[in-house]
Amino acid sequence: MTAALRRWLGGTLRRQLTIGVGLVVGLAMALFVFDMTRRQADMAIERQSEEAVALARSISVSASAWMAARDYAGLQEIIDGLAGYPDLRHALVVDARGLVLAHDQPARRGLYLADLPAGGDAQVLQRSATLVDVASPIVYGGRPVGWVRIGVGGQRLAAQIAEIRRNGALYGLAAVFAALAIAGLAGRYLTVRLARIQRVVDAVQGGDLTQRVGLSGDDEAGRLAAAFDGMLDALGLRTEELRASEQKLSTILDNVSAYIYLKDSEGRYLYANRWVRELFRLPLDEIVGRDDAVFFDGETLAQLRRNDRRVLHDGETLRVEETNVDRHTGQTNTYLTVKLPLRREDGQIYALCGISTDISERKAAEVQLARHKDELEAEVRLRTADLMRARDAAEAASRAKSTFLANMSHELRTPMNGIIGMAALALRHADDPKLREQLAMIDRSSKHLLGIINDILDLSKIEADRLQLERIDFRIGEIPANLLSLIGHRAAEKGLALRVDLPPGLAERPVRGDPLRLNQILLNLAGNALKFTEAGEIVIAARIEAEEADALRLRWEVRDTGIGIDENDRRRLFTAFEQADGSMTRRYGGTGLGLAISKRLVGLMGGEIGVDSRPGVGSTFWFTVRLDKAAPSALPVAAPEGSAERQLAAAFPGARILLVEDEPINQEVSRGLLEDAGLCVDLAEDGEIACTLARQQRYDLILMDMQMPRLSGVDAARAIRADSLNRTTPILAMTANVFEDDRRACAEAGMNGHIPKPVDPERLFESMLDALRAAVQTA
Description:
Elements (H helix, E strand, L loop, with lengths): L1 H8 L3 H57 L2 H9 L7 E8 L4 E4 L19 E5 L3 E10 L2 E11 L1 H51 L14 H36 L3 E6 L4 E4 L1 H7 L17 H15 L5 E8 L6 E12 L5 E10 L1 H70 L3 H31 L8 E4 L2 H17 L2 E5 L8 E4 L1 H18 L4 E11 L3 E10 L6 H4 L11 H7 L5 H11 L4 E6 L3 E12 L14 H8 L4 E5 L3 H13 L3 E5 L2 H10 L4 E4 L8 H10 L8 E5 L4 H9 L4 E4 L4 H18 L1
Parallel strand pairs: 12-14, 18-19, 18-20, 20-21, 21-22
Antiparallel strand pairs: 1-2, 1-5, 3-4, 4-5, 6-7, 6-10, 8-9, 9-10, 11-13, 13-17, 14-15, 15-17, 16-17
């Protein structure tokens, strides 16, 4: 019953509006009738009270005379005269003591009234809808002598009030019915307009977006209808755009070379592109809403559902390979599949998107490739074994070559050291001019032979990539100055002008590089110019070709006025063991190694080398090198004046030197040079004797040969550094082993320097002087 009433009350908007208005108006009218009835009842009681008071006053005025005359029968007649007064309940007269003198019920005369009124004026003792009781004093001679009390009942008053209430109820019902009628009409007007909106809403829900409400007016329903129509217009536009976008997207997805599909949370298809439709051989409407059980065999179905569960339930994004059997052809295909979850704004997964690419052909190709790979790897292993054998043979040949070069260097330089040294010693003590000339010829021939040996070894080191360039700070002007000191006397002997052409300030520019090799290149070029020039001049020129923030490219030129070189011969100039003309070797001498070595050295210095020449006019040999800039403060301090031998004799007279040398001639040469410089020399024939002496005697400097019987110089140096009285004594290697590996081995053994054989006395004394000074500074 309650539910049915609730459904009835919650029915149409018109019914709700009518019932609501009726209830509101009814409640308002009930309140109004209640208030009006109460007010009119109060007014009726007030009028009845005023009438009773007026009656009591009138009787009290009449009764005063009778009271004065003590004519109580007259008083009773007055009271009896009130018998016809409407709705009279009681009427009595009492004296000041409360004695009843007259009463509408005569039997009550002579009784006393206990509750006499207080005060001296007429007053209402009780006022209600059922009884109005008033009292008025009887005054005689200006003082109260008694009271008149009148009581009027409420029957007439009740009838008046009842009539008022009936009239109010009738007016209220009339108002309610009128309000219901008006509400019904208003509701009908409103609901008719809303019904039109509802019909359009129902049509939109049914998919018809062409319906419009079309209501006029500026009320809420009209504005709602206008807004709804505007919304439908926008929705229709967006729907058309969405339909066009979906069509574009569908076209794109249908033409992508992949199987693209959507599935809901139950695994049912929501979308499938053309490739999927062709695989299933079904239109889209027969695919949507169905799951994989319809399209695949049991094994494939289990695989697909397992992967789908990981996406839909676990939220994973998968990149897996899936295989299935085409139910139409029976062919097994392999797909590379990416599956990702689609989420709502709250993060809940509602579908998955799958993109599968058929990689069956690629897998077959991979199998074929793997087979070819195995075959290729087997072939590579065979070839690698051959190459390793070839490499081992090449490395063995390289090691043999290096060993041969090292041995040849040692075996050639050792006797050359004896020849040059002995010639130098003899020249120091020879007085006969003829003998001195012969000794000088021996010295020049030996040094020429040494130059050839050095060229061959340099070329071998360059070809073996074992030549290391130094990085030393020097001034550019030092290079041509050193060159002039070496060949200046030879140019003067031939009557040739030898000059240097440098731009202002270039000679003082500090740079960093290998000045020795730079000197070697210029000496080769200048030596050739001197050799092939009979008259005229030789110019050594240099200029900056390019400059960077931290480096510069320097161009050197050696210009002569010699015999020149024709174009055909120029092509072979920088080849090892080649000269421009074979007859030149017989006429001018030389091995043809100088230019080949110069070209290799220039390449190591990041430059180029070339020649410009005209037969009978002269030649210009040029080359460029890249040199780093150096700070002026980093340049070495100039050495004091005088030869190194004189400086050594003056600074360290009687210094004790340990000479470790196994070759008798070299012993005599080295000892003679040292003793001529005023030094005290102890001789050790091998490394073991050197270690014994080093443990017994403290020396100022040790000169150590490298290749010796019983104990090599490297091992002896390590032993001396480990346990002797000379753990900090400078040790200089004096050896025919001149390769970089030999220098590195000496340094690792604790030696302080390396002096190549054949020993140049001046260089020997310079190295000893530097080592002794360094030892003094660190002591």
